[in-house]
Design goal:
heterotrimer; A mainly alpha; B alpha/beta; C mainly alpha; A: mainly alpha; two-stranded antiparallel sheet; two-stranded antiparallel ribbon; 15 helices; C: mainly alpha; ABC transporter involved in vitamin B12 uptake, BtuC; 11 helices; 2 strands; globular
Chain lengths: 311, 256, 286
């Protein structure tokens, strides 16, 4: 059964509720869910711990906006060159990491190093990125709606529908990949890389693929995030961004496609349920991460089900 | 000539595991390798399979130099190795193991077109599953294919390793002690698998300690000691060879 | 010009020693407990704030504050080991993630207790030494000397005492060490605590020179890990050298290239080294 069907009922939420807070939480859930699903593919399925997705997330926002402004093209068209940039970066960083057979820990550190480098560049390239001040994004994505022509996505409900639709698309794509021979190879690499090699699986290629997919999804999420929150800043590129995604995936559960989305929902909704000062929020994130690792290694979804799509 | 090894050596720091070994294997042959522990048998197989890079010497496969090539490329070229201690994918089922092992077969079947199978996985899956079924039946693993592989007995795990190797449709199958740890019935099963492979024309290279088992299947034996080849001839000759007996069975048996 | 460069190099060496002591903790922890404790930077911060608090608020003499700060950091290390890290032995990913969670918890604690306003210690050892046109503050030199002594003593202890040899034996071959009667669980706890104490002394001395902020932990662990990888994780003597090389690279880089990218120079250098020598400069066995 396609996991995307589970998302369909969510289209009814705006009809039932006009609660701005709830809808906003869900919008962020869907956006960050895309980021988390991407990370789940490279880490949960292929077993590679990377710290690059935070940078990809930020680049998604910056690149899309800058391309849109400089070239005067639409949001969706601007994403195409942005994806090209992400593909190039993924191939460069991935090549450095995988070609040199860096083992897991070194690999995490090198991706972190690259991510930090990118963040420093963005932080200091004031002419282009406005440094720490960030960029104000007032442009809106547009879509073609039958009968009304080009419509701007503005306001909570349109954004809700857009982000949910993109999440559905991402879910379908992820599922197709994971259930195909590609997903099987990811699992093989995660579980016993040497055995996978003796069976003829080119582990370098598949690790690169997983890494690239993760970054592409992260960038997509980053673009949506920047345009929805009308603001792009260097903090979106930080290690914290990567760690948030990791926490969501762990909390929700790595064994299913939608587990990360559940994790995204819980972590996004949490600050609204309990009033927190910024310090306490960080401490709670940390505590949750610790508790999940030690007590719930299969995440929330893992508590309820035995699903594990690996082959 | 399928495989030609020339002066192959492997050093680990000061330890010489394999020392200037040269041999040739023709297509369709079955060659047994014997020797005491530490004689370099597994290292030799690891070198052939690309899991280790040689310190010196060459390996020619169908005329092409493959020394130092990565294991996945060597597998694609047709050389597949099983492991002495069964290597598995923890938490996956028996069927999933052979499906993963069907990667090369799928590639050969469809080439780039296999990308289309992402959208329509059923037909390709059927084809793979048919092959998997046959292989599993041969290896007597057809019962409970959805069982986690971890639930298998030791003997079954080893047979799963052979099944996975068979899915790769190898031209040369390197078996590292396939019979060790197997019970009598399982050895009989292994025997029928080897006979089937032989009928298919797969070239086999088998390491084992059970000399009787080896001699039954391998008309030709290679004996190793301390990383060097000390005999390479028909089974009868090698088993009658004094240095082999000394090396393998100990001085007391020499001349017996 | 050479004076300026020399001055920068000296500064780099001193900062590098701080990196080195964290790197030593990282290497020890990895070798014996099989994880990288990313929270070591936080234990450095604990040592720093404890030293500051004891000196400036409780008005104890600085050397005593340092000693107590080390004990506090060690105690905190013991608690976190019992509560958390004993469950993540040899599980690199889990250990990493748990330590990252711990970072948030400890850093938030520091923010709540001390706020983000930088704290400066009233001058402990004022004055400086001059050599030609180079001036180095006395405190920096003392810090360097003390850290060097601690690292040297650690290295000597590992080479010559029974405990030290047992530790090295365990790092090489855990099963053999166990069979020879080494109490591995106690060893692991001990190393865990010792690494935190090392970070603590680094922090306590750091407090005497620089201003303190809760974010210092994150910065130093990154540098410590870089230094450890640069030297080759597993190489204990190399940890200090790695730290110093890193410190010098950053100082020289900041001198000739934009200062804003100071942190980047070390990273670039590290990635470059890893490409040519995947096991680090000194190729650790582990």
């Amino acid at each position: 059964m396609s996991a995307a069907w589970l998302l369909v009922p969510l289209y009814l939420v705006p009809l039932v509720s006009h609660n701005e807070v709830l809808l906003t939480i869900l919008i962020f859930t869907y956006i960050l869910g895309i980021l988390a699903i991407g990370f789940n593919i490279v880490f949960g399925y292929a077993g590679q711990l990377t710290m690059f997705h935070g940078a990809a997330f930020g680049i998604g926002g910056y690149a899309t906006f800058l391309i849109l402004s400089k070239l005067g093209i639409s949001f969706w068209l601007a994403m195409l060159p942005m994806f090209a940039v992400i593909l190039l970066l993924s191939m460069l960083v991935g090549w450095v990491c995988f070609k040199f057979r860096l083992r897991e820990f070194y690999f995490a550190v090198v991706t972190l190093a690259f991510a930090e480098l990118i963040r420093l560049v963005v932080l200091n390239w004031n002419d282009v990125t406005n440094g720490t001040l960030g960029l104000l994004v007032l442009d809106k994505p547009t879509i073609w709606w039958p009968g009304r022509g080009l419509v701007k996505i503005d306001g909570t409900v349109p954004w809700y529908l857009l982000t949910l639709t993109v999440l559905c698309a991402v879910t379908v794509v992820s599922q197709l990949i994971v259930r195909s021979w590609i997903g099987r190879n990811f699992a093989a690499i995660r579980l016993n890389e040497e055995l996978a090699q003796t069976l003829g699986i080119n582990t370098f290629r598949y690790k690169m693929l997983a890494f690239t997919i993760s970054n592409v999804f992260a960038a997509l999420a980053g673009a949506l995030f920047g345009f929805y929150s009308n603001y792009i800043e260097p903090a979106q590129l930080s290690i914290t961004q990567s760690l948030d995604a990791i926490a969501m995936v762990l909390l929700g559960g790595m064994g299913s496609i939608l587990g990360p989305v559940v994790g995204a929902f819980l972590l996004t909704g949490l600050p609204h349920v309990i009033e927190f000062s910024a310090e306490l929020r960080a401490a709670t994130y940390g505590a949750i991460l610790i508790l999940v690792i030690l007590l719930m290694p299969r995440g929330v979804v893992g508590l309820f089900s035995r699903w594990r799509h690996v082959a | 000539m399928l495989l030609k090894v020339d002066g192959l050596s492997k050093r680990f720091g000061g330890l010489v595991a394999v020392s200037a070994i040269s041999l040739q294997i023709e297509a369709g042959e079955i060659v047994g390798i014997l020797g005491p522990n530490g004689s370099g048998k597994t290292t030799l197989l690891n070198l052939l399979a690309g899991l280790l890079a040689p310190s010196s010497g060459t390996i020619l496969w169908q005329g092409r130099d493959i020394s130092g090539t990565k294991p996945e490329l060597i597998a694609a070229l047709g050389i597949v190795k099983t492991f002495q201690n069964p290597q598995l994918f923890a938490e996956l089922s028996v069927l999933e193991h052979v499906m993963i092992a069907g990667h090369l077969a799928l590639k050969r079947l469809l080439g780039f077109a296999r990308s289309k199978t992402i959208f329509a996985p059923k037909p390709a899956r059927h084809e793979l599953e048919a092959r998997a079924e046959r292989v599993l039946r041969l290896c007597r693993l057809s019962q409970g294919v959805d069982r986690p592989a971890a639930a298998l007995s030791y003997g079954e795990e080893k047979m799963l390793g052979v099944a996975m190797a068979m899915m790769c449709e190898p031209k040369l199958l390197l078996l590292d002690e396939p019979a060790s740890g197997l019970g009598q019935a399982e050895i009989v099963n292994l025997g029928s698998v080897l006979r089937d492979l032989r009928e298919h024309g797969t070239t086999l290279c088998i390491i084992d300690h059970k000399v009787a088992f080896l001699a039954e299947f391998a008309p030709r034996l290679i004996a190793l000691q301390n990383g060097s080849k000390i005999a390479d001839a028909s089974a009868q000759e090698v088993l009658g060879n004094e240095s082999v007996i000394t090396a393998y069975l100990g001085r007391q048996h020499a001349g017996a | 010009m050479t004076q300026v460069i020399l001055g920068q190099v000296l500064n780099g060496i001193i900062v590098g020693t701080l990196y080195g002591i964290i790197a030593l903790g990282v290497t020890l922890t990895f070798g014996i407990t099989g994880i990288v404790n990313f929270a070591l930077g936080q234990f450095m911060m604990i040592g720093a704030y404890a030293a500051w608090h004891l000196t400036d608020v409780v008005h104890l003499p600085y050397p005593l504050s340092v000693a107590l700060a080390v004990l506090i950091a060690g105690l905190a290390g013991f608690l976190s080991d019992r509560a958390l890290f004993q469950f993540t032995r040899n599980n690199l990913v889990n250990g990493l993630l748990v330590s990252i969670g711990l970072i948030s918890v400890i850093e938030s604690g520091a923010l709540l207790l001390y706020t983000a306003t930088p704290k400066n210690m009233d001058f402990v050892l004022s004055g400086s030494w001059t050599l030609g046109a180079i001036t180095i503050s006395r405190m920096k030199v003392v810090t360097f000397a003390v850290l060097l002594a601690v690292i040297a003593l650690t290295w000597l202890a590992l080479a010559n005492t029974w405990l030290g040899r047992a530790t090295r034996a365990y790092a090489q071959n855990p099963e053999a060490a166990m069979l020879m009667g080494v109490k591995t669980e106690m060893l692991q706890v001990g190393v865990s605590v010792y690494s935190c104490a090392l970070a603590g002394i680094g922090g306590a001395l750091y407090a005497g020179i620089y201003s303190l902020e809760p974010s210092m932990g994150a910065l130093f662990i990154l540098k410590g890990v870089e230094a450890a990888i640069l030297a080759g994780v597993g190489n204990l003597a190399g940890a200090l050298v790695g730290g110093i090389i890193l410190g010098i690279t950053e100082s020289i880089g900041a001198l000739f290239l934009p200062t804003a990218f100071r942190d980047a120079y070390g990273l670039v250098f590290l990635v470059a080294i890893l490409l040519f020598r995947p096991s680090g400069l000194f190729g650790g066995q582990k």
